[in-house]
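Notebook, bench 3.
Goal today: get a predicted structure for ABC transporter ATP-binding protein from Paenibacillus solisilvae so we can plan the truncation constructs. The sequence was checked against the plasmid map this morning, with no discrepancies at the termini. Length recorded as 362 residues. Pasting the sequence as submitted so the record is complete.
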Amino acid sequence: MNEQPIIRFEKVTKQYQGDAAVLRDVSFTIERGRFYTLLGPSGCGKTTILRLIAGFTEPTSGNIYFNGRVINHIPANKRQVNTVFQDYALFPHLNVFENIAFGLRIKKLKRADIEAKVKEALRFVNLTGYESREIKEMSGGQRQRVAIARAIVNEPEIILLDEPLSALDLKLRTEMQYELRELQQRLGITFIFVTHDQEEALAMSDEIFVLSEGIIQQSGTPTDIYDEPINRFVADFIGESNIVAGKMTQDFLVEFGGRTFECVDRGLHPNEPIEIVIRPEDLEITAVQQGKLQVQVETQLFRGVHYEILCSDETGNKWLVHSTKKVVVGEAIGLTFETEAIHVMRFGESEEDFDRRLEAYS
Ligand SMILES: Nc1ncnc2c1ncn2[C@@H]1O[C@H](COP(=O)(O)OP(=O)(O)O)[C@@H](O)[C@H]1O
Ligand SMILES: [Mg+2]
């Protein structure tokens, strides 16, 4: 068993001719057998990372390692990587069997081996019996599964999936999220999945890399990223959050909304300006005087599971609350929260410094 990470990026920069860098000094490690997601808004460099891993383009500087060896100049067809593209890129004139068999025929496998492998791949994606169907007779979800079968039939070490679910409607997309996750666990192959949908990333991944403008803003498990966003971009991009300006008066004491609160953060400069995050579901509605904050209700929307209530405090901060309690617009209410619900973010803190600061607490 190879102990090296399957993929490692070391200060990888990618610049297309004459343009600004699309990726800047990107470093990360991919361990084998896990489900990774690259998450970020359109244009942040997700597809570029996949193309670099697949070998469709080379880095401008930095190194890409596969099982410990630099692969910067190794061509795509020599890499044990297969890609599932957003538009599936299936051959419309070939049937399901021939689409999946295509790569194996190029490798000149024996007819019986091809047949066995294609059958096995179809079984994996629940399409047994669909061998002779034409692509145009398949639904969106089925085409998706053919594209995945075509990738797994080559037994790659890594499967790259570039927004493969974005063309599907919501219900089918949710189904395919379960299917893909389950398939990855059954196969044990490393998946690197790209999406701009944060809920999809949270639901599917072992680890998420949050990207913005060619930089990895934060990496970690879904709960790490949701509970401890490193900066405003991540807090805002992942889930809904209340982000409010404040000041760290001293260790374990933070000031915002005109009050001082206990918190779990320390190691910042006295009176350092910071931003705090509290998730809407971590705010609880109380009677005015019982609240840690007194706020005025501005709007209320019923969302099926909960009410979405927007309030403002006396310093003008807006607070979004998710609650099963109904309130009255225009009235004053109290808001309370656990000490742990306050998450302090430093301005301009790097991911390394952030991790070091968190480790110092424990
Ligand atoms: N071949 C190319 N030549 C020049 N610019 C490119 C090329 N491919 C991508 N880009 C630019 O690189 C940036 C990142 O693109 P991409 O990696 O496709 O982002 P994402 O997949 O996150 O939407 C975009 O600004 C895009 O216009
Ligand atoms: Mg893309």
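The longest strand covers residues 21-30. The pocket of adenosine-5'-diphosphate (ligand 1) is lined by residues 16, 19, 22, 40, 42-48 (CB under 6 Å).
Flagging this for group meeting.
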